[in-house]
Amino acid sequence: MKITLRKDLLQFAENASSPRVSIYFPTYRLGADVQQNVIRFKNQLRVANQRLEELGFGEDEKEHLLRPLESLRSNDPLWQNQLDGFAAFSAGGEIRHFNLPFTVNESVHVGSDFRFRPLFPWFTEGEKFILLALNLNGIELYEGDRYLIEKVALPESIPASLKEAMQYDEADPAMSFHSGGNAPTHQSHRHGAMFHGDGGEKDVRKDQILRFFREVDRGLHTYLQDKNCPLLTAGVEYLHPIYEEANTYGKLRPENLPGAPENKRLEELHGEAVALLEPQWEKALQEQVERFRNHALAGETGDGKVADQVEALLPAAYQGRVDTLIYHPTAQIWGKFDPQSGEIDPGPRDENGNIDLIELAALHTLKHGGSVHLDGQGVLPSEFAMAAVLRF
């Protein structure tokens, strides 16, 4: 998921040699147009080769950078199973490439740094969630964000079903359990569960479900303890209040995605979860903007609480002091940064080793666990290219 992608890219950027190549382009998911994916990639490689030539790199240097990327052209499954965008990075004979769940503009960057800015919206930590699909015949667990949702393996300590949790066959031979379906899959399993015994068939009692959900909650404890994000449930209405009673995780949402999750497509579950959480995400961003505004209007941008000038903001990001960074989508500040002295030398774009200082500030913010937000809604005052709320 994105957290792994982010860590991998930050580590790659920290250790990679120069020059570096960054490639982005939109892709097709379905239909005959998927054939355009590899064609677009080939065209971007041609542009990268031309840029390297213009910068004076020889054939051996170009081959060292581009051959690992060229090897992807023959990977048919890669191009036939795309999402909405593609990103690839090359340096020192190593590459990283990613299918993106959002579209990006075509671009090729060759220089002393990678170009990660198109990925920043995907790195927003505050927009993650956990989804627990409640089904007595098969619990399922998902991690998601604004753009993507993925199924994750249940911790081994979690019983997969009520049947497994109760183990009636072993506990009482006179009371055998059966469920109304086969082993669970996302596409098909039923939410009913019945018992047969000497007394006849009857509904599963609430206390049995509660015991099951307490086992689930107990099994999720270690998994959730470092997540710090909302937990949503999806399931038929009577299950959610029972899970609420069993739950000990502090960020369980009171809302439930109604209906049997096994009868919904994963994309549908994702859409419902995002629609439920989006107001919370927007509110959190607005609160940070208001916090910045209040300090800025009071003339407190130099007191260690907020920063709006690159001369103060970039050293703060490098030192791990930035909690939240917000930037305008079109804003660019180019120059050099000396991390030892904290001095900034502004200059023209892509000349004399100049880099995008907003991107550099964002990278250091992410590296130290801060959050980065693209101000796509214009909530930041127009006079600011970027703004930061500081930890200290």
Describe the secondary structure blueprint for this structure:
Layout: H1 2-15, E1 20-26, H2 35-54, H3 59-70, H4 76-80, E2 85-91, E3 94-100, E4 107-111, E5 128-133, E6 140-145, E7 149-152, H5 162-166, H6 168-171, E8 176-179, E9 193-196, E10 202-203, H7 206-224, E11 231-235, H8 239-246, E12 252-258, H9 266-297, E13 306-307, H10 310-318, E14 322-327, E15 334-338, E16 343-346, E17 355-356, H11 357-367, E18 371-374, E19 386-390
Helix pairs in contact: 2-3, 7-8, 10-11
What does this structure look like?
The protein has 392 residues and is α+β, with helices and mostly antiparallel strands. 35% of the residues lie in helices and 23% in strands. The protein folds into 3 domains: 17-113; 125-264, eRF1 domain 2 (Nucleotidyltransferase, domain 5); 280-390, Ribosomal protein L30/S12 (60s Ribosomal Protein L30, Chain: A), CATH 3.30.1330.30. The protein contains 11 helices and 19 strands. The chain has a 5-stranded mixed sheet. A hairpin with a 4-residue loop joins strand 15 and strand 16 (343-346). Helix 2 runs antiparallel to helix 3 (59-70) and helix 7 crosses helix 8 (239-246). The longest helix has 32 residues, at 266-297. The radius of gyration is 26 Å and the shape is globular. The model is unreliable at 168-202 (pLDDT under 50).
